[in-house]
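Appendix B. One record, verbatim.
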Amino acid sequence: MTYKVAAFYQFAALPEYRELREPLRAFSAGLALKGSVLLAREGINGTIAGAPEAVDAFIHELAHGGLFGGRLNNLELKFSTAEAIPFGRLKVRLKKEIVTLGDEAADPTRQVGTYVDAAEWNTLIAAPDTLVLDTRNAFEVAMGTFEGAVDPGIRSFGQFKDFAAEQLDPARHRRIAMFCTGGIRCEKASAHLLARGFAEVYHLRGGILKYLEEVPEAQSRWRGECFVFDERVALGHGLREKDKGHGRDK
């Protein structure tokens, strides 16, 4: 059996997020799903896997069901497949932030950078006056990144604001194009830079995963593999799993 994997997030006001935890966990368990879901006052973030029809039912409930009352009708979604469920169990956790930056001024529900679709990304990052910035952790960057991208050298996303304060200058870096795995870290990072006075901040809509899904390998400026936070470890172009023993696409 081929299992379906859904990575998703949305920034949305969920003031009663604590009360949503158990109903969401029970609904997910009833579909025999496994994976990890984070709930916070600012929204939802997660990756789940299971039978294709079960994953579809889960996403439909998030976007259109009564549990969230239509507040998650603009989910950022990426689908891929796995030969085995890449999670050991189901976890629904409560968090202060769905992606931790630690800057209250960085509120993606108020302002974020300009979204750039995968088809337009190559043109943007090829421009000589564009600073291309990888917002992921150093070990992720080591596995793969875009040509010419700056590695901030951070161990966790919470350190990004320190990197920005020390290395980025609104007067010198007038156009910044940033990217991350699925797009969520860039939402926070772009909101942070805009709050600090940077004028032109762009980010890759849907992140690296959407780029690898949509851009043909022959036209790709991506080099290496994309780390994912599950037992598949890394994905390549077309969101294909990598052979763990030989580094080849399955």
